[in-house]
Bifunctional folate synthesis protein (Cellulomonas xylanilytica), 432 residues
Amino acid sequence: MNDEGRQDALDTSGRRLDQIRLTGITALGYHGVFEHERREGQTFVADVVVHLDTRRAAARDDLAHTLNYGELAEQVAAVLSGEPVELIETVAERIAATVLASGVVQAVDVAVHKPNAPIQVPFGDVVVAIHRDRSKLPAAEPYVARVAQEAQPVSRPVPTSTATFPVTPAPGAPVVPASGPAPAASLVPSGAWSDAVAPAPGAFSGGPDGPSTELEPVPAGEAVVVGELVTDSLDQEPQEPVEVVLALGANLGPAQDTLRDAVTDLARTPGVEVRDVSALARTSAVGGPEQSDYLNTVVLATTTLSPRALLRATQAIENAHGRERHERWGPRTLDIDIVLYGSVLAVTDDLELPHPRAHERAFVLQPWAQVDPDAILPGLGGGPVGALAATAPDRDGVRWLALDWLTTAIPAVSGDTGAVPAGQPGPEAQDT
């Protein structure tokens, strides 16, 4: 808890996240339960505290790697002055959803003030304050500017955003005039956020006309289950194929065979096209318990999958090869990491792009530099991959690189384990 009584947000390692604070955002809105509030409007004020990691942006001095608070202020003001609702609790949830639609944001505090609330006794202010993060999602959809169109009644939400990243278009895009006294900027109807991103596998479809927004009656005696669909910019499919870099490793079982099969599985995955495969590296384990050496390779590919859909695909391949996650950095039959997804820089609970430790892992950098000598790793600590490989802390742990491993058995890979015990000599390097 900080000095102002606000709960600090922590990253996945338990460290306090950085903050961007926007206070006193003011707009004329038409929210309230009384008719005169909807007719005449009143002043609403919002304070927003965004929790995120600002190091990448600071290291590169680049706005693209952080939250544009100017745009965010315009979006918050658009929510305040947008589609009228009865409760400022709803307004607060909509602002929180808008902030969390950015993949770099981990949590947000929102306070909505209604200083002119119709209260019959003297008072200073009315404030609704909420904290939302990716484990406690907002009960609303994010702000999206509507594309101008003829005003017609609709029976279901119409997706309005086709932007690749982020989900929310930049403020200033054409908007549909809202009904009544509210200004033109408004919110996408409930349910449109999930329409604007790729649906999760097995997600319910409301029929040929798309998802239904109507509540269906629940048969007597059946329990009602309320669920939340976790979506952000990493769930949205790109408009054209994106270049990706995947790092594969194994040190349990027939490791070379497993890696060969995994490459084949990736090539057969819909939406993934394998372009090149690096040499096979034998490397010492980094971190974790004492264990056998690893075999590692890097796959260059393109994909039309969203970042999170690609993550699910790689995890499915890991699981198909018996991957179990009992111990962090422990031995494994197969590990597939997304090192790079185009130019996307994002930090979420389940996916960080580029991979946060890629710049210091020679077992990724050396095979990558071998297959793509001109490769550049973006983000914090990034740079030319070849140069990073030459200075990586674990560079002495890369024992050899072998070409043609996809079609030729490597002599040093022997026994039932398929991996090489630590300290055992291997063949001479076939490529450096």
